[in-house]
Amino acid sequence: MSASDDLYELPVEECWELLRAQEFGRLAFTLVDELHITPINYAVDGETLLFRTAAGNKLFSVELGGEVAFEIDEIDDETEQATSVVVRGSARHLEEDEAHRADNLPLRPWLGTDKPNVVEIAPVEVTGRRFPLSRPWLRMRTD
After folding, report:
1. Bridge-based pairing state of the strands 81-93 and 67-76
2. What domains, with CATH codes, occur in the chain?
């Protein structure tokens, strides 16, 4: 049996359930010819993701119209399984008349900095997988 035999592809509906259940993930984007990845907090709004940001690399990349990828994951130590959901799509800076959508969601900056810009990620593809972990070093601990 190969490792891929234990890999379970998640249905899209389950991916959305997991996305709704979490609020922290990683955003990957390109800026000119550099690839960036950064942690963000987010909220699900219908079948899109919203996050807040200040002026900087993330917002600049969005303004340039680049595609993004977003990922959440979790490790369940009790079942010794890992789950990962990846969203690929486009991001756009919401204008003031649409940015109010974020006001009705649990989407506030985790840091004490002002993040007035609301960005929407419109998915083109949502995929997920669950797989067992093989971490033999955990059983080798002597503490």
Report:
1. antiparallel
2. 3-133 (2.30.110.10)
pLDDT in tens, 74-125: 998 888 899 999 999 999 999 988 888 888 887 877 777 788 889 999 999 9
Tens of pLDDT, residues 8-34: 999 999 999 999 999 999 999 999 889
Compute the half-sphere exposure of residue 34: CA atoms within 13 Å on the CB side of its CA: 8
Q: Are 59 and 122 in contact (CB under 8 A)?
A: no
Whole-prediction pTM = 0.86
Q: What are phi and psi of 104, to 5 degrees?
A: -95, 10
Q: Where are the alpha helices (DSSP H) in the chain?
A: 12-21, 57-63, 96-99
E strand intervals along the chain = 8-9, 24-31, 34-41, 43-45, 48-53, 67-76, 81-93, 117-132
Higher model confidence: residue 80 or residue 42? 42
What is the spatial distance between Cα 18 and Cα 135, in angstroms, rounded to a whole number?
24
